[in-house]
Design a protein that fits this description.
This protein is an alpha+beta fold. It is 52% helix and 13% strand. It is built from 9 helices and 7 strands; from the N terminus they run αααααββααααβββββ. Helix 2 (34-50) runs antiparallel to helix 3, helix 4 crosses helix 5 and helix 5 packs antiparallel against helix 6 (147-179).
């Protein structure tokens, strides 16, 4: 019974000590302290909730300033260093808050700019105390850091700026892949900068999409039309198919920047029974292969009555196209 009573007393003492520690942490020892700034930031945000217009923004702005000042003060009182550097962990926290304050939005706090600039701001926050001496407040004086301190500051700033550049490079590549999805099908094995983390897209789908949209339009224009009109259309295939291609690309890739990198070209080949029309959608963007790549769909165009095509003026054209498109790596064939 005595041991149980002692255990209960020990638990109460532990809770009391924990509460005293929390109370000491959040109770300002004097008016001019980091806790005061934190409380002022919370008070400002609370008041801004009930304000409107520019007054609301002004009070919220002051709340951010109080939060930054209080956080920077608390995290530099007894700094815990980042392993292998003289950068305090608090500088990383303060740098993050400054980044959110400068580049964040109400809709999205973690923007790309917030993450990119974070390491550089953390390095600047770390470097600032090296240019002052004193205990803070009115006793702080500006000074020029010692030579060895200058070297450490320059190296730290350079490394953090390099990290920011690499993070920015990631966001640039990610933006390119979103705006130009056909790049996902390319080969990055020889790249010194890009590492593929997801399964590769086997083939760029937009080229196949354009072909599948153009083929019915070609059938409408030359299918079951007089043979003489069809031959005239084939003579002007560059212009005819070019117009169809531009309209198709504009209507189906209107929101994609890829629409400027795809083009449609015909290849007309004479065969014994009529003509073969190869419709090509050619990728004009960057590619790991210097020759590029393209999609092809072939259509066989024949007169309905080949034995009478020169005698019967009512002979019409029959069009039969491949059911699927073919993806080809290399330069498209030359015009004949």
């Amino acid at each position: 019974m005595d041991s149980l009573f002692k255990d209960v007393i020990g638990i109460f003492k532990f809770i009391q000590g924990l509460f005293a520690g929390v109370q000491k942490l959040f109770t300002p020892p004097k008016a001019y302290s980091w806790q005061t700034f934190i409380y002022l930031s919370l008070f400002s945000w609370g008041i801004s909730y009930f304000a409107v217009g520019y007054i609301k923004d002004t009070i919220a702005f002051c709340g951010w300033l109080f939060l930054l000042a209080g956080t920077a003060w608390y995290t530099t009182d007894d700094p815990l260093r980042f392993p292998g550097t003289f950068m305090p962990i608090g500088a990383i926290i303060t740098g993050f808050l400054v980044s959110v304050f400068a580049f964040g939005h109400q809709e999205n706090v973690l923007t790309s700019n917030t993450i990119v600039i974070w390491p550089t701001i953390a390095a600047i926050v770390t470097a600032i105390p090296n240019f002052f001496e004193g205990t803070g407040g009115t006793s702080a004086k500006a000074k020029l850091p010692k030579l060895q301190d200058r070297q450490k500051v320059v190296v730290l700033l350079a490394w953090c700026m390099l990290i920011s550049c690499w993070i920015q490079f990631y966001f640039v590549i990610d933006k390119w892949l979103k705006e130009y999805p056909s790049l996902r099908a390319d080969n990055f094995e020889k790249s010194a900068f890009v590492i593929r983390l997801e399964p590769p897209t086997p083939k760029p789908k937009n080229g196949d999409l354009i072909l599948n949209k153009i083929q019915p339009l070609v059938n409408q224009q030359i299918g079951n039309r007089p043979w003489s009109e069809v031959e005239k259309w084939l003579l002007e295939a560059d212009q005819q198919l070019g117009n169809l291609g531009r309209r198709t690309i504009e209507s189906n890739l209107n929101k994609s920047k890829e629409k400027l990198l795809w083009r449609v070209e015909p290849r007309v080949v004479n065969i014994k029974s009529g003509y073969r029309l190869d419709i090509l959608t050619i990728w004009g963007g960057p590619s790991a292969d210097a020759q590029g790549y393209y999609w092809r769909k072939s259509c066989l165009i024949q007169p309905s009555n080949p034995s009478q095509q020169t005698e019967n003026k009512t002979t019409v054209a029959k069009v039969a196209c491949d059911r699927t498109s073919t993806f080809i790596v290399g330069s498209p064939p030359a015009q004949q």
